[in-house]
Structures are given as structure tokens and as C-alpha cells.
Amino acid sequence: MRKSYLYNEIADNIADKIKSGVLKAGEKLPSVRNLSREHGISINTAKRIFLELEARSLIWSKPQSGYYINSVSYLKLPLAEASQPIPIANTREPDLLMNDIYSTMRRKDLTLFSIGVPSGTLLPSAKLKKEIQLATRNLQDGGTDYEPLQGNVKLRRMIAARSLAWEGNLKDDDIVTTNGCMNALSLCLMALTKPGDTIALESPCYSGILQLAVSLGLKVLEIDTHPITGIEIDALKKLLPEINVCLLVPSFNTPLGYCMPDNNKKEIVSLLSEHNIPLIEDDTYGDLHFDAKRPKCCKSFDKDGNVLWCGSVSKTLAPGFRVGWVAPGRYKEQILKLKLIHSISSNSLINEAIGNFLLTGKYENHLRNLRRTLQENYQKYASAIATYFPAGTKVSRPQGGLALWIEFPKHVDTEKLYNQALKHHISISPGKIFTLQEQFQNCMRLCIGLPWTDDLELKLKQLGHLAKLN
Amino acid sequence: MRKSYLYNEIADNIADKIKSGVLKAGEKLPSVRNLSREHGISINTAKRIFLELEARSLIWSKPQSGYYINSVSYLKLPLAEASQPIPIANTREPDLLMNDIYSTMRRKDLTLFSIGVPSGTLLPSAKLKKEIQLATRNLQDGGTDYEPLQGNVKLRRMIAARSLAWEGNLKDDDIVTTNGCMNALSLCLMALTKPGDTIALESPCYSGILQLAVSLGLKVLEIDTHPITGIEIDALKKLLPEINVCLLVPSFNTPLGYCMPDNNKKEIVSLLSEHNIPLIEDDTYGDLHFDAKRPKCCKSFDKDGNVLWCGSVSKTLAPGFRVGWVAPGRYKEQILKLKLIHSISSNSLINEAIGNFLLTGKYENHLRNLRRTLQENYQKYASAIATYFPAGTKVSRPQGGLALWIEFPKHVDTEKLYNQALKHHISISPGKIFTLQEQFQNCMRLCIGLPWTDDLELKLKQLGHLAKLN
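Output (C-alpha cells, whole complex):
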């Protein structure tokens, strides 16, 4: 145990020096033998440290020579600004642009920076096919009968088991399965609100959540949000008397990618509980952490069942399968009732297959690869942005997840850029769809879940060029 | 073509004589040779007529002797009465008994007369398993990616093709897939109503629909309903000014099982269109006709897109798969928008598998067997009721579907009966859950989708006995 502590510590130490510029791009690192002598560790541990740094794209290996430090100039890109939305609840219709963008998402001729899920090539389709075939054989009725209202037991047990990693300590009885994460959020909002109620959201906020809230007749209060730490607690405190429900995406949020620090999560849970405001936590990106450790959730700090924790496999495994869940705390009965009324049950066969996939460890294997790919992608995208985009472009610093948030110089109109880019077979998500207010007209979200290729780099170069023409 | 017209005509003619008592129980029918001579038809056609009548359980074959007429004493059971609900919109919470009943539905120790779907043994699980395995191989991404918002093309094409049988003339673009039929109804109501609106429903009405309406904040207006012809048009006319939306289950309704005559369907469509009241048609039992012909739908008479026709495979194929659809007429955009917001898409893999099942004709084969079984069951259940239930018991006369509606003498309390029956491992659906008013306290629904066995007959005998003790 002590050895791995040392291994992480040393790797982090070197990583910090690289990021801060103490160790410069192009510099050669000590040999494996020297590193092992320097720190009094085994050759194997030294090798592991280098592999870890290589995995983080901080160093690269030149055959018969040694390890060299990567360029991390992108880390010098300025940080996107914290948002300052107007603290007045809004009932405006979400921008219709969202529908346009959604309609382009199946076009094979586009480079889809606008999607919100990993590219299919990064997902284990073959293994999932096998899992489904197994489930059809093993489920007694082939999955044709209704499953228990709370949902497939195996899947719930696995979600509960995985919650130990973030100190959730859930039991399978605490969980209700749903048809994907949006469906979980939808059930939560229908259970907890009535038309005219006010919902507090981060800003920028995933457009699907804005649409859901407005369609349920809710007034939307967008709260100041910092690109590294998330929603500003002081801003939230001032508006508490108006708020009926709060919905946050605190771990690797789209589009900002921050991971709200544990202390903030704890404070918000406590604050909302004190004021009897239910907290809906969308943790659908929680497994996509770039660091080794799975972050805690707000639910980890939930003492009185006031946090409804939602998740799914849509961002990590299979968007089309519609497999999600919620641990609704003290609101479980209301959630079950609505699930019964609106859709009776989830799909038993698919949920059983996903449950098995989680059980056999294939999910965790897949996640390790996916996380690594996403982190490498982030660094490559950011390097391309540093190289090709207009001077003064700011970015987010995602610590996980699928998104990169770009803030162009103020004169760049990203709705205009969206239309220009489409003519060049590139699709982006303009900032205005992530708010109901007049904000983010110079911002955009890019999906980092596309496999990195030379062509992708060319497309980013083209995007940068188009932005410069603005 | 003319021959089969003759064959049906002759079979129907004999059937009528049996039902009306002109041909008496126990009587011997003419031989095949005599029948062929009598009507100037071939021996084969004459044989077919006898097979058809045997399939309808009206005659039975005694080896080396000939065909004899079955007892159809159940046909002498008095008809259940037309309902006369109070014509005032109601916002009362549905009876909690519904939740109790739902919670018993997976118990293996109960004879579940309370379920609303065919028993698993009557469903083609093995064939469906194969179909899913095929779909996992053939779907390009194994079904992991989101499908088009409108839903799987193959499934929609097949639903459209099948609509020709009821003169629906739908195209695949007219259809949107959903997660089962309740989900289709839910989307329709969310698109067309707001809390405080009034919905007109048949009475008795499936409890799931009552719960859905109340949960959406709607006021429920229950309309007089006749057990053979369905909703009373005059009663509906009087209340039109108050009604915002109408939801009917006009073909093999649960729990009454009637098939609304075509003229009535046509008149209602016209009436509601004139008054700009959308009509949601739940056609989920439409394929379960006892007669040879698939009935027309209200949608068949829809001239201006005011009818939203909903269906699913939950009552005919696989309840657990959550495969449904709606042809929303002129309300398609609203439906699509809500589908996107609340659940993004349906499950591509499962929908593809069901689409294939329909394409290859396996569905129609299966339906033929299922219909035959349900019709035979109806006759057996009804005979048992005529034999074992209290004098004065009335029943519905289902022309299709899964339900039989029993009306006991007025002093019998079916909620009490429900509790007594549970102690004897029998589960029923008491009448009170099919209304929000004080009605049907002496009524109950039985599911005729359970395979007929001696034990089942014993259970019916027991039920009759318990009712007599009341």
C-alpha cells in the first residue's frame, strides 16, 4: 500500500513540474535506473511512473533514447471566465437552434464536434452484443415479462456496489432504474415540482436540462458558475428563498468539465437540506475522471435523503440502450409511482445485460481505456486550439467528461460560426443553447469524445481559421 | 375470393343458430358430406367450416361419430349493465388498491386473474430471443448509438404496412416510436393538455389511464358506456363544451372487451374534430380480435389529423420490451419535441428486433394462435362462471382482448372479495379501481390470458364460492 502511495506521489510531483514549466518541453527525463536510485524505489515502480506520465500525455518515449517532455503549451491558454447570469428566474423558450443541431447528429458527412457522447468507435459494441445474447439465453422468459417496478435487481446491485467507490454506501433497494438519465431527471422533476416552481441550475447548463425544465412549466434561475469549482455558493445562498428545487451536474459537468471540490459539495448539500430544497444530482459523467480516483458525489454527503442521485451508461457505454437510474432518497415512493404511471417498467433484457457487463469487470476495463483516451484527446484538442484559434481564446480545464468549452474573443459570434462551419462539414454547439439568457454568444462546446486523427486536427484548424475571419 | 366468402357466411350462419339456441347443446351436426351437398360446396370447404366452428369452441368432434354442439349456456348469462357515472369532472386520487394489486403481480404463489397481459407461456419467447440475437449481429453499432428521434425505421414501416388491414393508410413518417403504450399515452397527454384541463374517458376505464390523467393534473369526466357498443355518443355530446381532450380504447377495451361499431367510431371522430377536441385512441388490443377480421380504428376515419392513434406489443408479444408507437396526426411536432426532452430515444436494438419479427410474418402466425386461445379461454371462463358463480351474475361479451368483466349481485363487495381471495392465493381486480367515482363496488375484472387448466377451473369455482358467501 505504501509503495503505490509513493508511486502516485512521485508521478504527481513530476507532473506538477511539467505543468508549471519547471521541467520544460523537449527536456529529457532521468533514465529508469536513475529514477529508481534517486527515489529508492524498484526498477518496476520507476517504469510504472513513466508509463503513468505517458498515459497522461505529459511525456513521450523515444526508442533507444529515453523519455522526453511533451509540449503542454495549451496549459498556458487562459481560463474561461466565470459566468454572471442575471439573478432573475426566466421562462423563455430554449433556443430553437438546439433542434437544428440535434437533427444533424446522424449525418455521416459531418465532423460532429456537437455530439454529447463518445464516438461509437470508443464503445465496446462487440462485447455488449455478446452480453445481450447471453441475457436472452439466461433470462427465464427471455426478458418478455415486466420486470419489478424498481427495476432489474442485478443492475441495481452493481450500481450499489460501485457507489462504494464514492462513499455512497447505497443498497440495491435505494435505487430505481429508468430509461436513461434524462428520463431519471424527468421523473425527479415531475415528482418534486409543479408548473410555476423555480429551479436553480448552473450556467452554462446542458440544453436538454433547460428544455426539460421549461417544458414542465418551471422558471429557470441560472446561478453564477466558476469554470474550476462550479456553482458559486454565495450566489446560490442569496437566491434560496425563491428556489423550489436545485439540479446540478457537479462532476465533469457538460460543458465546463469541472469537478466541484468535496467541500463545496458538502456545503451545498447541507445548505439545501436546511432550506428543504431537494437537490437533484446528475452524475452521468462521474466515471469519466481523468485522475485515478473516482470523485465523491453530493450524495456522499447526503444525511437525510434530500439528494436524488441520477446516473446512466449513456455517456460511457451505450447511449442507445436507455439504461439509467436514480437513488431518490426520501422521495422514492413518489418516483416509483410516476415510473409506474408513465412507463410501467424499464427494458428487462437490456438492463440484465448491462448488469452483467458491470458484474464481470468488463465495464471497469473499458472505462480505464476510455478515460485515458479522453484525457489524451483533451490535451490534443487544447494544443490544437492553442495553435490554430484566434489570440485571446480562453478554454475550460476539464478534469474529466466529454466536453471542452471555448470562449472566443468577444466579437466572435458562434451562431454565425455554427452556420459557416456547417458549410465546411463541421458541426459545433454554439454557447447560446446552454442558457435562456443573453450569454455565451462568443462561446462554444466541443466534444472530446471523437477519436483523434489527422483529419480531426485539420477540422480544428479550419474552425480556428473561420473564427479568425469573424 | 368468392369461396371464402361463402365459407365464412355458412360458418357464421351456423354459429348464430347455436348461440341463439336454434341448434341446441348436444345436438349432432350434419356430416361433412351432407353439409357439402346441402350448400353445393367442396368436401374441403365443408371440413374447413367445421374446423372453424370447432376453433370457436361451438362444436366438438367425437371420433368415429361426428360433430356435436357444445354447451354455450354461458351465452345465456345476462349482460353487464351500461355504466351511468355522474357527469361531473373529478379530481379524486385513484384508489390505492391499484398499488397493492400491482405489487402482487410477480408472486408465483398466486393465480393472477388480476394481470392485464397474456401469460408468458402464451408468448413466443424463444422466437423473440432469436430475433434479438440476430439484431445484435446486424445492427451496425450493435444498437449502442441513439436511433433517429422518430424511431427505428423498420418498425415504423411495419406498423404502417399493418395499418392497411384497418384502412389506416399510414406511412412510416406518420409514426413515432415510444417506450410502450402507456408512454405513448403519456406523451400525448403532456403534449395536448395542461393541469386543470378536462379529459373524457370511458367508464369503467383502465386504472393506469386514470392514474396518468390525475398525475398530470387533469379533471376526469367519466362518460356513460355500453358493454357492447362502447361510449354513449349522446352522453358525450352533452358534455362537449367542458372537454379538452378525449381518450378512448374503442377496440377490445379493458375491462369490457367491446368493439365499438364502425359507425360510432366515424361519428365520434367527426364530432370531436368539429369541436377541436383531440382524440387519443389506445389501440393496444386491436390485434386481439376473436373474429377473423381486424376491426377498423377511429384513426381509419380521421380526415384532419385530429386522432392520435397509439399501439404497442405489450399485450400481444412482450410486455417487458417497452415497444410502442403513436401516429399523432397534426400533433407530430409536439410529440417529437416531448419525446426528445423526456427520453431522447427508444431502445434501438429491441425495436429493430420487433420490426424484424413483424416483417417475417412470425407476428401474424403468433397472433392467430393467441387469438384462438383467448377466444377459447373466454368461452371456458364464461362457462365456469355460469356454473359456479352466484345466481344473477352478469358478464361482459368481449369480442376480443384480454378481459372479462363480472358484475355480481349488488350486495357483493368485490374489495372484500379481493382480500378473501388473496388468502386463497387468488388475485382479482376489483371494480372500484376502474373509476374515480363510487361505482362498480360489486364488479371485477378477470384476465382471460391465463392458460386454461383444471387448477384454473378450481380457482374460478373457489372464487364463485367466496362470492356466494358474501
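The radius of gyration of chain B is 23 Å.
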